[in-house]
Records
---
Amino acid sequence: MSKNKLPNGFINSAQKCGLDTILMQKALIPHLYIESNKIISAQKISGLKILTERFQEGVKIKLVVKKGTLIKKPIFFCFGILGEKGKQVILPEIILERGAEAKIFAHCTFPQAKNVSHQMEAKIKLGKNAKLTYQETHYHGENFGTKVLPNLKILIGEAAVLENEFILDQGSVGKLKIILETELEKNAFVEIISKVIGKGKGDDIEIYDKALLKGKNSRSLIKLRGAVVDGGRMFFRGKTEAKAKNARGHIDCREIVVGNSVAESVPIIKVNHPEARITHEASVGKVNQKELETLMTRGLSEKEAIDFIIRGVIK
Amino acid sequence: MWADFMKKILEVKNLSVESIEDKKKILENISFDIAEKSIHVLIGPNGSGKSTLAYALIGSSRFKVVSGKIIFQNKDITKLSTDKRAKMGLTLAFQEPAYFEGITVENFLRAGNKNITQSDIEKILSLVDLEPEKFLNREINQGLSGGERKRIEFASVLTMKPKLMILDEPDSGLDIIIYREFYNILENIKKETKASVLLITHREELGYIANQATFLNQGKIIYSGNFRKVMRKYCQFSGRKKICQKINCQMDL
């Protein structure tokens, strides 16, 4: 089967992040690959519309999955800058019409970054009964040289489902600031999971996740699994606000701090309806001593044991 | 003594240990040996220092050796870190094993031996009476029962192919039916591995598979040597006639 034009720099980093690069390179798999502001490769399929518009610093994208369309194959996005310097702005608008279903695997990579900025302003809208799985993995190289600022506003229609997962667990982070806001109509559900490991003092991570439960029976789960090692900083704010009957939300945060690092967690829960309920749990602190000691009795060094524990938590 | 004629795997010489946290002395002038391929029982009342001795032997950072030496396979390991001791073949199965978020049983077992084959992993799980197909992909979280977690802890220690494994009260917190199964597991381990075992226990009945024993009280050794002789001392000390009858001590209390 013929291949698409996914560049080696993207392939290497996608492999590091455990993605299926064979599938990503298939010519007929639905995809959109952008380096800086250049569209390297794109593939539409029946029921999926992808429109792009280049501008000086990036690309504006409109992706529509048409009413009732079930896209079985994953849709791959790859965005990034392969050089040491540069700026990329991505402006996606993703619409899943009524009853549509899709899975998007997005991979953002800046493998050589020393002074790279990536901004994203995304708007996502899920129609009634639509379902979107959106998994985004990042690789920012090893030089702490990126500034990545994604900003997502998501409307989840009646009985629609969004499963969103963000993973950055390989290489350095640099500056990362994610702002993700969701609004849910009745019977809608959202799951927002973030998994990030900061590796050093050049890593400064801020994650702001929000679920506004507007419709009755709407549900949300905001979950963070994070670790900061050797001088990194991580700030997490998960906010859930319930405004309707039987709305349910939960915020679950676990951050591990190793060495001279700082982690902060601020769960905010607000209930405006007597029959709504939101809960939260959070733990921020050092690696569990018992877990560490157990692994050391199995022959792992302290560093290997900490890494093993963090990988488990992030997984 | 029996151990005197056997090759020693571990020699503890005049060991005194204190807690790092409050600098309280917990063990004082402890000396005993463990023979190769033997099962050595460490017995004593609650708070006697049995677990502390186990932690000191593995080099836990929570305790400090104030004086004395630990010799393992003729090498002084007193100042070695826990992982280095483990790499030499000295390890511990914890009394209350830790849980690991996101880690499967298989990954946990492989942590102790990266080169272990799949069939060896399955064999070891069967040895501790766990069905591999049911447990390999289970996460080591609170969804496991206490007994299952203890068996996994055993299995993890066994994957390392250790030379000396310390089992810290493997029977604690288990109901009577399950702890009897542990007898069988211990017997299996004794048959299948060439490892020596230091078995810390409250249940004197477990001692029937032991070669030697050490009786510890208030951080000091009361007696160390042949299992029955040690138990005799233990009976005298605790006044528990039933124990003596059970293990047929033939003693005059």
---
Amino acid sequence: MSATEPKPLPSTVVRDDEARLVSAAKAGDITAFEELVNRYERKIFRLGMNITQNREDAEDVMQEAFLKSYTNLDRFQGDSRFYTWLVRIAVNEALMKLRKRRPNQFSLDEPLTDGEDPVFREIEDWGPSPEQKFAQTELNEILNGVISELDPIFRVAFLLRDVEGVSTEETAQILGISEAAVKSRLLRARLKLRQKLNKYFRRSEAQ
Amino acid sequence: MNCKKVILELTSYLDGVLDSNMRADLEQHLSRCTDCRLVVDTTRKTIQIFCNSEPVPLPEDIRKRLHTALLERFRRNAKTT
């Protein structure tokens, strides 16, 4: 069988010296805080863009996340990573934007079923490295396109868990839902994205 | 284990948090069910592709406004402390 050994998926954000920079920033070292900003600004902007799907909103989200994290740095206890704390602030800001922009369309409590069953459709082999069929810019456009089609409740769960590497427990806390609900949303998000990506990555398209 | 159960356990399996008995059952099913195997493989690749994607470049004007706002906050903070 071709099923490979399951491994924890890599987090792309782990840095060993983050705690040192946070301590220095707490002690008033502005350069240390700027280093944290330089390190995470692109990721927080991407997160804002992915959730709000709007450049101006993403800019506001990023600014507020960094300004609030700086202002409240003395309240950061260090029981999670600084990056996770920053993501939590950014997600809250982004969700507020969504609610404000689309008060009748967006709810984190809406039912999970949408009448679609994304599981056993579009079942085709993609080959070993399907993303290599595309240049980086084209690949980014594809990924942005398919993720924007997801309902926000699925999109946010997927972004936090699989793109930002936030744990299930922390994702549940950020979204104010149970861990079981996070897992359920994550499953549907992953399956829907798999189905949407199939038309780009299936092996027959590579010929 | 049947196909429906495989899908229900898919997230735990891909995250490596499924207990060993359940994992063995699931992998036994995968060894004989091509559809489930393809769903598992392509879902794993979906996650990896997103996980490995590069953040979009931060537009320079947006970055500049962020750092101007931060500088202003640093200054204000320095005055009050």
